[in-house]
Known about the structure:
With about 200 residues, the protein is mainly α. The chain has helices spanning about 5-45, 50-70, 80-100, 105-130, 135-155, 160-195.
Amino acid sequence: xxxxxxxxxxxxxxxxxxxxxxxxxxxxxxAFSVTWVxxxxxxxxxxxxFTTALLVIYPAWDxxxxxxxxxxxxxxxxxxxxxxxxxxxxxxxxxxxxxxQMGVAEALIVFGAWAILTGLIQLVLGLRRRKSIGGxxxxxxxxxxxxxxxxxFIVLAHEPTMGITSLAGYAAFGAFYYLxxxxxxxxxxxxxxxx
Length: 195
């Protein structure tokens, strides 16, 4: 076996492994988002304490998801965007907890800033991964939509009921995009195996 053939086999194996790991992670993230949407929809108006916890848990979960993403994508040469995303997520969870002491509007502004920043990071990651493993168009669209959603959260911040509803919609779209990406990555893995 020539060194170029061996290199293609190793690269193909790494691509399949990464695609499978990301696929599992995307299904898990979609399940979390759907559960979060259901809980926030049911409890947002009646149980302030539980809603507060849910609003802090969402960015905290994103931090965990980012570290799982790093583990799934361990062959990536640049992990800087994920580390930046994790730091932003930790700061956001803390900022949401603090902002909620002032009011829901302030928390929605924090969420808006977070959605804009993480959307931009997701766009960058999706564009990078599209070249190596494919199946990233849903994540690219999701990143763009996250930026727009963040702007909407800031605009609707002083309409708290509307703002929390828009957060549920944001998480629901996130679940949809994660599912779409998971199914696209199945094609990537199958194509790499066939090559």
